[in-house]
Here is the input.
Amino acid sequence: MISYEEFSDNCRRVLERIARACAQCGRSPESVTLLPVTKTHPAAAAEYASRFGFKSVGENRVQEALEKRPQAPATLRWELIGHLQSNKAKLAVGVFDRIQSVDTPELAARIDRLAGETGKTMPVLLQANAGGDPAKFGTADFSGLQRLAETAAALPNLRIDGLMTIPALDADIAVAQRAFETLRDWRVKLETQLGKKLPELSMGMSGDIEVAVAAGSTTVRVGTALFGKRE
Here is the structure.
């Protein structure tokens, strides 16, 4: 685990990258949230994030969040950014403040039911496979995303904050850019069809922050560039 000083330096570098990317496309840096990703890092990573001033962290696995959250500052919010198996949905509803990876109507309905049983409204993002990568979760076509969105919008215990996508991990920048621009365009169409705003576009990671910001990302999910290589 790197030191807090190293983490702070890394944060400043990434925030500078975001600021430069925003300047190049005429956006305010305040319009982009940096979400530190604590996957495979110890609970101290979440403490680092809170100490630096971040309000939320992203975690890929339900079990890791269950173990780390009790050791982290109580004010820190936790967002699930990894694939959610249906049999882990109850645990996820209990431990996460937002689920970014709702990728099927069935999963949306299950989360809604579980959230209702605990008396909460669960904020979610709908995950789309905007890059068409067969190794990624989420629908790869707009009609599938539309069906998911219409289902989720009718559920009383879900709040749809926006959309999320993950391009192929080995994709070059041009491929990632096309995926991000596709998600942006899908959001515009969905907002028209649903008659409601979908403010969040969660897209972009350590290697493609600049093209994600240019395509309209509101949340970039960064792990390695902040915490160093995963253990």
Q: What stands out?
A: The CA atoms of residues 35 and 54 lie 8 Å apart. DSSP finds nine helices and eight strands in the chain.
